[in-house]
Amino acid sequence: MTKICEYDATTWDAEFAEDLKAQALAGIEEGQVLFFPRLAFPLTDAERHFLSPATVGKSKNVSFDPLTGALKGFSEQVSDREALGNMMARFASSSRALVTNLLSHYRTALLPGRTSFRPVEAAGRASSWRKDDTRLHVDSFPSAPVQDRRILRVFNNVNPDGKPRTWRLGGSFEAVAARFLPSLSAPLWGSAPVLEWLGVTKSRRSPYDHFMLQLHDRMKADLDYQSGTDQVTHDFPPGSTWIVFTDQVSHAVMAGQYLLEQTFYLPLEAMQDPAKSPLRILERMMGRMLV
Ligand code: SIN
Ligand code: FE
To answer: Nearest CA to 289 among 268, 259, 271?
Structure first.
């Protein structure tokens, strides 16, 4: 069962004692959720205006690239785009400070991905079962292959009305893989370069990416698994932060509105123990290399 381990930091640049850092590093690689119940992300008065579904268009999320400053997904109604971009950039840099202070083992290897702001109620948001994040899943992106990188995400609930973000958390990656491995099929020979050439994927989809996408889909499609597997429900209150390897920890969001999220990619070899990664676990279970 997924463990939620609490840390009492109240600022994004908090320094942590060496024993806490060692505990956090071992814990997150085991598949724990690192939970900061008192780590809020304060918004300015101008930023509080973005706490409305009217901030987004059809995409339902605002997306920000901390490397280029590109901002996407906002609606025509947003007049102060600079303020929106500043909020996203501050969440990106705050998240990076937190991760590099606590998980300092990853400091030099950590690659920033997108920052996202989700102002739409999570319950009932999905347009298809595949996009339905109220179903337990591990993260895998159809168009953005990770090759051999891990997906590490920082979440903060910025809800102003006291409403928690309610998640379900399932069993270990080993248990999920053992259940679904027999139903996964290998990629069609030669398909990865074709998908890249067609622009379906932004880079080459590795066999690992292929199997993780299938795992994501099989988990979401299996309603017996969704209701029957051992799981816990956890409320992340407003003003709290949590860090998760979402490619490893099976998770689902049941309800909540107004979330900030920062994605990081971590090369496998930067882990303290790469053997704990989904890639190495799948390779051991399948008896073959997947990248
Ligand atoms: C997800 O990563 O599946 C969704 C998390 C959330 O929006 O709370
Ligand atoms: Fe997810």
So the answer is: 268
44: left (phi over 0), alpha (psi -120 to 50) or beta: beta
Spacing, Cα 76 to ligand 2 middle (Å): 28
Summarised one tens digit per residue, pLDDT across range 88-127 is 999 999 999 999 999 999 999 999 999 999 999 999 887 8
CA distance 89 to 93: 6
Q: What is the C-alpha to C-alpha distance for residues 119 and 261, in angstroms, rounded to an integer?
A: 11
The number of beta carbons lying within 10 Å of the beta carbon of residue 56 is 21
Question: Which residue matches tokens 């890249």?
Answer: 196
Determine the atom of ligand 1 nearest the C-alpha atom of 153: 2
pLDDT digits (tens, 9 = 90+) for 18-47: 999 999 999 999 999 999 999 999 999 999
- Distance (angstroms) between ligand 2 centre and the Cα of 278 equals 15
For residue 133, give the ligand 1 atom closest to its CA: 3
> Both tokens of residue 280?
């190495």
Ligand 2 centroid from CA 107, angstroms:
24
Of the candidates 251, 243, 248, the one whose C-alpha atom is nearest the C-alpha of residue 268 is 248
What's the pLDDT score for residue 80? Answer: 95
The tokens describing 110, both together, are 């950590």
Q: Cα(149)–Cα(247) distance, rounded to whole angstroms? A: 10
What pLDDT was estimated at residue 2? 82
pLDDT value at position 278?
98
Q: Would the CB of 253 count as within 6 Å of ligand 1?
A: yes
